[in-house]
Write a structure and sequence with these properties.
By secondary structure, the chain is of the alpha+beta class. The protein has a single domain, classed as Alpha-Beta Plaits (2-Layer Sandwich). Helix content is 26%, strand content 41%. It contains two helices and five strands. The model has no long low-confidence stretch (mean pLDDT 95).
């Protein structure tokens, strides 16, 4: 299977609602590596690397609204070549 990385920016009510931790659980369930982190503008940045189909599943989950407590307004994503290799899916601060 082809391995890819995509970076996404999730906008809406996505900070202070457990969004990063729910994203981490979903990404781990899918076997992905990368991270989720809060940005100063109130959005969450998500880097997901792994099998293309699994990365797309995570992006679809984000676009569908993520955890119930969040209110996702839009998700922007693009292919990404990270400067380092991720070995798990973590929360960045």
């Amino acid at each position: 299977m082809a391995e890819i990385c995509k970076i996404a920016w999730v906008h809406g009510m996505v900070q202070g609602v457990g969004f990063r931790y729910s994203t981490q659980r979903e990404a781990q369930r899918l076997g992905l590596t990368g991270y989720a982190r809060n940005l100063e503008d109130g959005s969450v940045e998500v880097l997901a690397c792994g099998e293309a189909q699994k990365v797309e599943q995570l992006l679809a989950w984000l676009e569908a609204g993520g955890p119930r407590s969040a209110r996702v307004e839009r998700v922007l994503s693009e292919p990404h070549q990270p400067a380092k290799t991720w070995h798990d899916f973590g929360i960045r601060y």
